[in-house]
Amino acid sequence: MAHPKEVGGYNLGRLIIEGKTKQVFDLPEVPGHCLLLNKDRITAGDGVKAHDLEGKAAISNQTNAKVFEILKSAGIKTAFVKIVAPTAFISKKCEMIPIEWVTRRLATGSFLKRNPGVKEGFRFTPPKQETFYKDDANHDPQWSEEQIVSANFNFNGVTIGQDEVDYMRKATILVFEILEKAWALRDCALIDMKIEFGVDSEGNILLADIIDSDSWRLWPSGDKRLMVDKQVYRNLTNVTAADLDTVKRNFAWVKDQLDHLKPNVHHKVVIFMGSPADQAHCQNIAKVARDLGLNVDLRITSAHKATEETLRIMQQYEDTHGALVFIAVAGRSNGLGPVLSGNTSYPVINCPPPSEKLVQDIWSSLSVPSGLGCATVIYPDSAALMAAQIIGLQDYIVWARLRVKQLEMATSLRQADKKLRNQV
Ligand SMILES: Nc1ncnc2c1ncn2[C@@H]1O[C@H](COP(=O)(O)OP(=O)(O)O)[C@@H](O)[C@H]1O
Ligand SMILES: [Mg+2]
């Protein structure tokens, strides 16, 4: 088959690989990147069942882009770059790790066959993670972690050992949980999904390939009968034109729903400081909070010297925002946090500035009158993280950024440990 020479204004190089649903082309003018061209093709059963489905490539392209945008904004490292044509997008060029990483919230489908006795709908907490070796000829056999490590894969200079497998397993579960929370906003239950990872030319392990209606089971209202994913196609014995139309309509519905998966809660973190002298400390809190994607305001007001003004400012915020956290920064005797806390039902976090007298001063934040529920931390990043945890209860993107941060911390500690071991 003749290949296109150009797509979306990009000159195509050689066809790197062609699979069941996509072609991957080199981009000679964009080093380190490739172009993925979706096909109007739907397949199931390792390609045994296959049909042309006009319009599927464009729906898939949009679905994938929207899903990857959500994951990107949550801080997940992905290969996706941008859409460049109705059926094509640019991605970082990867050497792909030939493993399908599957996560399940409820037991259904092939899990039930492989685990006789487990009833459909069994709920996994935490989600169940399984790995399959990509090998159509042998029906993608399930692989254990030991098998993956023993394969001694090396892609773009990275050996896939225990550390890399651990990272991918954690990232896989995180991706599932993010999309599960996202879909919950539309009352859709994400039942299970599969993803793939690749290694880019710089040796980064990235979430790659695509995520579309072929990648998951999605049950509106948690009702299997309402399924809108590729399972509808898998279940068909005789595939009619009307059936294919239903499948396509479902896929298009999913693509459109993805526009409504952004967190719909406005939030604000207001840092009150008792004196301009506390600004440096407050800026440290604001920086960590903003890096987590929080909207932050900084205000100067003294609860001791200008009580009415303090309460007036506080009430202005209560009036205008949904998810709201106050952080109170006051040296010496902290009247600010307890006064805010005694007059609002929103959370207040005390974070007194560093001082030689902190050990004595801290008691004004800790030993508060009855009826007050403010919390106290002393490090700027602790205050920002706690605020993010509170906002994250209502905003899954903020929640996800916290989880990504934890995953990155664990990874960098492990890398430091590895470096140290290699030195000795
Ligand atoms: N960013 C990328 N860089 C290089 N190859 C990729 C990238 N993303 C996906 N691929 C590969 O593109 C190939 C074609 O995709 P697809 O048609 O889904 O294949 P398959 O039938 O093997 O699932 C797959 O082998 C997939 O691993
Ligand atoms: Mg595929």
Automatic annotation (TrEMBL):
Among SUPFAM superfamilies, the record links this protein to: N5-CAIR mutase (phosphoribosylaminoimidazole carboxylase, PurE), SAICAR synthase-like
Q: Which family does it belong to?
A: In the N-terminal section; belongs to the SAICAR synthetase family.
Which biological pathway? Purine metabolism; IMP biosynthesis via de novo pathway; 5-amino-1-(5-phospho-D-ribosyl)imidazole-4-carboxylate from 5-amino-1-(5-phospho-D-ribosyl)imidazole (carboxylase route): step 1/1; Purine metabolism; IMP biosynthesis via de novo pathway; 5-amino-1-(5-phospho-D-ribosyl)imidazole-4-carboxamide from 5-amino-1-(5-phospho-D-ribosyl)imidazole-4-carboxylate: step 1/2
Tell me what organism the protein belongs to: Arctia plantaginis (Wood tiger moth)
- Keywords (A to Z) from UniProt: ATP-binding, Decarboxylase, Ligase, Lyase, Multifunctional enzyme, Nucleotide-binding, Purine biosynthesis
Entry-linked CDD domains? SAICAR_synt_Ade5
GO BP annotations listed: 'de novo' IMP biosynthetic process
Q: Which GO terms describe its molecular function?
A: ATP binding; carboxy-lyase activity; phosphoribosylaminoimidazolesuccinocarboxamide synthase activity
The UniProt record lists the PurE domain at 267-413
Recorded GO CC terms:
cytosol
List the protein's name: PurE domain-containing protein
Q: Does the keyword Isomerase apply?
A: no
The record's annotation in Gene3D superfamilies points to: 3.40.50.1970, ATP-grasp fold, B domain (3.30.470.20), Phosphorylase Kinase, domain 1 (3.30.200.20)
Q: Which InterPro entries does the record match to this protein?
A: PurE_classII (IPR033626), PurE_dom (IPR000031), SAICAR_synt/ADE2_N (IPR028923), SAICAR_synthetase (IPR050089), SAICAR_synthetase_CS (IPR018236)
- Domain of life, per lineage: Eukaryota
Query: According to its UniProt record, what is one Pfam family this protein matches?
Result: AIRC
